[in-house]
Design brief:
Layout (H helix, E strand, L loop, with lengths): L2 E4 L1 H9 L5 H10 L11 E5 L2 E6 L2 E8 L5 E9 L2
Parallel strand pairs: 1-5
Antiparallel strand pairs: 2-3, 3-4, 4-5
């Protein structure tokens, strides 16, 4: 299982727009239960362990940290317009 952390910006988005952003938050939470911290589809690796994921009408930029504790750091959540 992966631990998920949020930047201040991503955390603010999660709090400020709840419950309207429930779909994206549930999609992010589902990453915690993947074997490799990657979604099934809709993502591109921008740099080693840095991903841009298109899901639930949003763009999510996150970093996968595999050394030590397995952690996903959600940097940015932006709605697609």
């Amino acid at each position: 299982m992966w631990e998920i952390g949020f930047s201040q910006e991503a955390s603010n988005y999660a709090i400020d727009f709840h419950p309207y952003n429930e779909d994206i938050l549930m999609a992010i939470e589902s990453l915690a239960f993947t074997a490799d911290g990657l979604p099934d589809d809709g993502y591109v690796e921008l740099e080693p362990d840095i991903y841009l994921w298109q899901v639930a009408g949003h763009s999510v930029l996150y970093r996968r940290m595999t050394q030590g504790q397995r952690r996903l750091w959600i940097a940015i959540i932006k709605p697609n317009e």
